[in-house]
Amino acid sequence: MRIGAVVTRIMQQMRRDKRTLALLFLAPLLVLTLMYFVFNSNESEMTIVVSNGPASLIEKLEEADFHVIENNDFTAASLKEEKYDGWLAFHQTQLKLTLLNDDPSTAKALKMKLSQVLQPEQSSMMKLTTEYVYGDENTAIFDIFSPMLTGFFVFFFVFLITGIALLKERTSGTLERLLATPIKRSEIVAGYMIGYGLFAFIQTIIIVLFGIYVLDIVHVGSIWLVLLINILVALVSLSLGALLSSFAASEFQMMQFIPLVIVPQIFFSGIFPLDNMVEWLQNIGRIMPLYYAADALNGVMYKGYSFSEILVDLVILACFALVFITLNIVGLKKYRSL
Q: Is the entire prediction scored with pTM above 0.85?
């Protein structure tokens, strides 16, 4: 009887909590659907530029499912700009292969597949040499993921900690008492952003420095740019966590936002090639803050990008933060109209 009473109470409580029920049953379906489309994306066709290559080789490359571009005036700088997978140049008795290597798995697959096509040419005393635009032959796939992971962990922990902390401010009545004073809504939001932002700033520095100097995560570019990107990521996460905390009635409900807000962004942070996905999935990825954070971090830490080369990503991240902060200010209207 007593066990039955507990079960009945839980059933009634869950039935009244429509949001929890929706997240319990619909959130797994959403994540599973995203995983289905992400993992069933078509493999992209490898693009290779050929300079001064014989027609017979061009034909063999096309038969091997390469997308071949013939260009006798091509350079390594052009390869970096156009973001093709590789460039094969013929120089009398030498074959020179330059790999972009922005994705080590693609670069290794291209080199292996190309070596099979080139076996007749190599047997006729033509030597193949390989150079890399980014990284080298020992570059591992983790070297691509690790910069993105620093941004993800900054985003995740700032979102979780600040969201729950701000929720406690509201459920404990602190926010209501604060709103009873003449302080403006914008001043309240600014105060929370700065106050919690200081701790998020310290946390960001610790994560970045630990990743780079203790775990030896690859970093070719400026560490100051890495810190700048992650500070913007923390600001976006802080403002988003504050916004979503206003829709949660408990810490449990705040945790329920993770499969809806955090998990989908993992799929679009560069861990899976976005170019291989269907167009509607690519469009979803482009409205995710971590998409731009991962692009900037990968550019600086792995490719050595400068400030001007990641400026667009920084501006978009700043716009995300500004939008979320504005929505926080507007959201306080339900507590006070002044």
A: no
